[in-house]
Amino acid sequence: MGRASLAAVACLALAGAGYSAERPAAKxxxxxxxxxxxxxxxxxxxxxxxxxxxNQTVLRAHPKLTFERNGYTYTIESDGDRSTYTVSDSNGKxxxxxxxxxGVHNQTFVLEHxxxxxxSMVSYxxxxxxxxxxxxxxxxxxxxxxxxxxxxxxxxxxxxxxxCHSTGAVNGGKLTLASLEPGLNCGHCHAGAGAHMKSLAAGxxxxxxxxxxxxxxxxxxxFCGQCHRTWEEIVKLRQFGEANVRFQPYxxxxxxxxxxxxxxxxxxxxxxxxxxxxxxxxxxxxxxxxCHSQDAPPVAGLDVPRAKVCPVAQEKCVSCHMPKLKIxxxxxxxxDHQIRIVRPGDPYPN
Length: 350
Known about the structure:
The chain folds into two domains: 6-182, no CATH class; 216-335, no CATH class.
């Protein structure tokens, strides 16, 4: 059918990732002690993860979307609680219901046909507010309606995709869609949360889930990299070039200032996993200045040279040192997490 998409190859590498098979703790139960997190996290992009009928709000807001490519016309129509994906050419058409809309602001659709799962050939992008070729599928040249409809996925690949966008859908590496819950909830990341809640309900002193905030930068990168891709996975797959800008743990680990034992450079130093990332560049200044300022205090037990102080500015640091780049073949911008001094004309650093 053609070259597999970058997203597919990366997902395939995650097939053995440690998804929690445990039924997640109920959010209201977790909220007994962790109210703020339990209230904010379900509204985040990770908390939503995917949209299922009848809650496909993005598609319902766009009753009809069309796109043409390689002699094929793509149409997505929504009527009430139902959305249909149709590909047609001069010889006929193929229509399938959209059950799984992966993503929140941008959405790729997983379609079912003749017992197999397919990644949709086209996706919805918030900018330019319409359909476009799914990232990584640009070089596929279909020969019939099925190939034009989407790219067939392997069992391990589709399990990895559901494992990163939902909770309870993968057990023992196999899809168990009957227990699928859209998005990542407490039990997905906090292994042992269910057992912890059961022990509290029984009035016993059960085991506490591992405190993820105690992980260092390297450990956090590997933990988040189960879905966002680790440095080792990208190197193993040799997924080099500008398309890997969306694999944040890999890019961050390439930064000169990345020190595995330094908590100031770990993912959660800048990003609260229970909230969406702040869009304003200035929101991250205090993180940058935790290292790059004359007043930056040393970290206990960490022997690293004092970071240089920027001679240009002390605000909106990421606007210069983490440039926004567009993925080849797609309209989406990503902040490059390879922190560096960016000079005009410099090649993309791997």
